[in-house]
Specification:
Oligomer: single chain
Structural class: mainly alpha
Number of domains: 1
Strand order of the largest sheet: 1-2
Number of helices: 4
Number of strands: 2
């Protein structure tokens, strides 16, 4: 059976017979074993860690001078824009 990922990549999944052969091979191999559900849950998650504080995703129109300046400061420019806006909000209160 074939499945298609979100990116359009196609994967061939093993048939039930192939899956049974794979599981039999795992069971017969003394150097490996199939992980239990508890062991899979205990594994470290893949990808970026979940943030304690999340941010709102918004679309905002900024002048070219602003975006040019902040993009010119390198990677993380959006975080720096957020910091400047937070400082402004704090100063207004």
């Amino acid at each position: 059976m074939q499945v298609k990922s979100k990116s359009g990549r196609i994967f061939d999944l093993p048939s039930d017979e192939d899956d049974a052969k794979i599981r039999e091979g795992i069971a017969n191999d003394t150097d490996t074993y199939e992980l239990s559900t508890e062991e899979v849950k205990a594994m470290r998650p893949m990808g970026r860690p979940k943030a304690e504080v999340t941010k709102d995703s918004v679309t905002i129109r900024l002048s070219p001078e602003v975006t040019s300046y902040f993009r010119g400061t390198g990677k993380g420019w959006q975080t720096r824009v957020d910091k400047v806006l937070k400082e402004y909000v704090s100063a207004q209160q």
